[in-house]
Design goal:
- The complex is a heterodimer of chains A (387) and B (345).
- Chain A has 387 residues and is mainly beta.
- In chain A, 8% of the residues lie in helices and 40% in strands.
- Chain A has a domain of 207 residues.
- Chain B is an alpha+beta fold and 345 residues long.
- Chain B is built from 7 helices and 14 strands.
- In chain B, the strands form 5 sheets. In chain B, strands 3-4-5-6-7-8 form a 6-stranded antiparallel β-sheet, with helices on one face. In chain B, strands 1-2 form a two-stranded antiparallel ribbon. Chain B has a two-stranded antiparallel ribbon with strand order 9-10.
- In chain B, helix 5 crosses helix 7.
- Chain B starts with a helix and ends with a helix.
- The chains are: A mainly beta (387), B alpha+beta (345).
- Chains A and B meet through helix 1, strand 4, strand 7 and strand 13 of A and helix 3 of B.
Chain lengths: 387, 345
């Protein structure tokens, strides 16, 4: 084990240790604050970087001069645990293109509260396989606190995201379990998204369960241009353009706009391979608290349309009802239909696109029982966590 | 010549039992942490201070070079005796094991004993395990350069072409930062030496000669590659489109390419990219955060000031600027070029 203490040469000491490390090495950063002017990076497989606690070992990037991340990891079988990254100029921790990465009790934070000047992502694994995020905390990211993108086999559990634009976001990813987390005081609590034009797309098999997504009523502070900038304040969970998503046993409430929104990707794209609609979505056994009492109609179109259609009586669950034209006419295949069941006295509004466009027809479905059906549980995400 | 041979033996002795067994001198840096501590130990230079290469080490030059904070870059290449390079159209030459690309960065100033300040010399060495990168940072006396594992910060000044004195916090990269740009599909690779970027006249000790013909005369490549040179982005006689694409290719295209370290963004700026949206035209940012500058698209034709790409080229904020590393200053020439190009799109 190599032990490093805070000092004036903290950057050189840590970075040199990260470069000279050999597989199996542990690099321990003792308690204290490390002031770093340049970004750190690890590219050696099988290394563990550990602090002495997320509130004890603090890597502070307030005076960062170079590098777009606090810490970047590009090697396999890495464990990061028990430290925090503060005030990185860009993303706090970016992990790209690895197999097996663990974040255990790691905290990422921008300490000045929500601000568009904060970095985009807190915990940011991307293009990776077997991602475990456990017991972590993410605060103040101007995009997503905990963000897993273009990855496969993902577990996010026992973690907390607050005061981010998006609390926890799973994007363009396959096989993710998001459970036992708390998302609060974000603009949107938990997001399951898919975007076009990326190396991996067509996100599918995501389970969101046993989470609390409550009181996500921070005004959207994302810089314009970013897709999360369109999320209205007060959104519990948003599912966009994914297939096979199961949302169950969550507590979702006190969200100003809506508890759950299921939506199509609505911007134009040239990407012919991209499928913009959500399908095979199952929502069951959730407990809903009050919602929609102060909808944010300033961001995107979602809240505005919803407010109009509901006459101000905002539902717990919203679906924009958009499907491919052929399905509008001939109906959706059975296995692609949304199932909503056993959610107590939850309310719903689903747009009927044809009715919405023509004057004499009903514009929306309000009867939640129309979506009742048999739940086909998705499989648990499993991988060997002992690396 | 003698110095060079000696150093080869030294390197072999230091690091490679395997190649000793094979009896051929090669830079088999199996354990990179044991690479020589000083640049002089390699014997690449007959005269270190004046950057005169040893026999067998040849200067080279690129048509369109990367912007590196307005440094002068002195490039040299070593290829083991009797070896040939492989050629694949549009790709970097395939160098034989043992080849080394040597690049010294310098500023014109009077801060040291010379007329220019040698900052660092970066080596890309093709080992049995692939290319390895390492930087050697020059001492104040400018007599030798020392291995800088964690990179180095060199606060200094230089005189720019307009005659102004510029302050700069020059950063020599650490090994991992070298990889950020030099890695494609997880494999380290050189960036500059593609045939299209080498097809130009170069001043050699023996006189002026086309660089590809010179390499052919050395026996490194065939004489008839038939490579069309890329535009020099500084050549005002070339078309704006060609110059802009040449600039983006060499400055951005090594990361912004499928398999490159910025491929997560879906923004591809390499010379061969044809898709307009992937090239950034009306493309939304994916993970830019505040680096979007409150703008909606990477490139808005006719509107450079609404284009994220230009905003990020101009910025000096580490959380915003592009490229992410390797620059502390803005490239005024490049900014003007991309501005003109977007205006005309």
């Amino acid at each position: 084990m190599q032990i490093i203490q805070p000092s004036d040469n903290a950057y050189e000491n840590i970075q040199e240790a990260l470069i000279l490390a050999e597989p199996g090495d542990i690099i321990r950063l003792t308690a204290g604050t490390y002031n770093l002017q340049d970004s750190l990076s690890l590219d050696v497989a099988g290394v563990q970087i550990e602090g002495e606690g997320m509130d004890q070992t603090i890597l502070n990037f307030s005076d960062q001069q170079t590098g777009a991340q606090g810490l970047s990891v590009t090697s396999n079988n890495v464990t990061l645990q028990d430290f925090s990254i503060q005030n990185a100029k860009g993303d706090a921790i970016k992990v790209k293109g690895v197999t097996n990465i663990k974040f255990l009790r790691v905290k990422t934070e921008w300490t000045n509260g929500p601000s568009p000047e904060n970095g985009a992502y807190g915990l940011y694994p991307v293009e990776s396989i077997n991602v475990l995020i456990d017991g972590c905390v993410a605060i103040g990211a101007s995009d997503a606190g905990i963000y897993v993108g273009q990855s496969k086999n993902i577990i996010v559990r026992n973690s907390k995201a607050e005061y981010n634009v998006a609390g926890i976001e799973i994007e363009n990813s396959y096989y993710a379990d998001v459970f036992n987390n708390v998302a609060t005081n974000n603009t949107g609590g938990i997001l399951v998204f898919d975007l076009p034009g990326l190396p991996q797309q067509g996100g599918h098999h995501v389970r969101v369960f046993n989470n609390r997504s409550v009181g996500n009523n921070t005004d959207n502070f994302a810089p314009e241009g970013n897709i999360v900038g369109e999320i209205p304040r007060g959104t519990g969970i948003i599912i966009q353009a994914n297939s096979d998503v199961e949302v169950f046993n969550n507590e979702i409430g006190d969200n100003d706009t809506v508890n759950i929104a299921v939506v199509t990707y609505s911007s134009e794209t040239d990407d012919q391979a991209y499928y913009p609609h959500p399908k095979s979505i199952q929502i069951h056994g959730n407990e809903f608290g009050p919602t929609g009492y102060n909808p944010d109609t300033s961001k995107g179109e979602l809240a505005q349309i919803l407010f109009e259609l509901s006459g101000g009586n905002m539902p717990d669950i919203f679906w924009d009802g958009l499907v491919p034209m052929s399905q509008l006419i001939f109906g959706q295949p059975e296995d692609e239909k949304m199932i909503i069941s056993n959610n107590g006295d939850a309310t719903l509004l689903a747009i009927k696109p044809i009715g919405y466009m023509l004057p004499f027809l009903e514009p929306a479905i309000l009867d939640i029982d129309e979506f009742d059906g048999e739940i086909l549980p998705l499989a648990k995400v499993k991988f060997d966590e002992s690396f | 010549m003698r110095a060079f041979r000696k150093s080869l033996l030294l390197v072999v002795f230091l690091i490679s039992f395997e190649s000793q067994a094979q009896g051929t001198p090669q830079y088999n840096l199996l354990n990179f942490s044991k690479a020589p501590e000083f640049l002089s130990e390699f014997g690449f230079f007959e005269d270190m201070q004046n950057q005169i290469p040893a026999d067998g080490v040849h200067p080279y030059s690129l048509v369109s070079p990367l912007f590196s904070d307005e440094t002068d870059k002195l490039r040299f290449v070593y290829v083991p005796d009797g070896q040939k390079l492989g050629y694949v159209k549009n790709k970097v030459f395939i160098f034989p094991v043992g080849s080394t690309l040597i690049k010294t960065f310098a500023y014109l100033n009077k801060n040291g004993p010379l007329d220019r300040q040698l900052l660092e010399t970066r080596l890309l060495i093709n080992t049995h395990e692939g290319w390895k990168a390492i930087s050697y940072v020059w001492n104040d006396e400018q007599t030798d350069a020392r291995r800088a594992i964690a990179g180095a910060t060199i606060p200094t000044t230089f005189i720019n072409p307009e005659g102004e004195m510029i302050d700069v916090r020059y950063r020599a990269p650490n090994q991992n930062q070298c990889k950020e740009c030099h890695q494609l599909n997880k494999v380290m690779t050189p960036i500059g030496p593609k045939a299209r970027n080498m097809n130009k006249l170069v001043e050699y000790q023996s006189g002026e000669m086309n660089q590809l013909l010179y390499w052919a005369a050395l026996g490194w490549i065939d004489q008839s590659l038939g490579s069309t040179p890329i535009s020099n982005y500084a050549d005002v006689n070339a078309s704006l489109e060609d110059r802009a694409r040449a600039y983006l290719d060499i400055n951005c295209g090594h990361c912004h390419i499928p398999g490159g370290s910025a491929d997560t963004t879906g923004l591809y700026l390499n010379f061969t990219e044809k898709d307009q949206e992937q090239l950034g035209i009306y493309k939304k940012p994916v993970a830019a955060g505040r680096a979007s500058g409150n703008l909606k698209y990477s490139i808005v034709p006719g509107h450079p000031n609404d284009s994220i790409i230009l905003f990020r080229m101009k910025s000096l904020d580490p959380g915003i600027m592009m490229p992410e590393s390797g620059r502390a200053l803005a490239d005024k020439t490049g900014i003007k070029l991309i501005e003109d190009w977007i205006n005309k799109l």
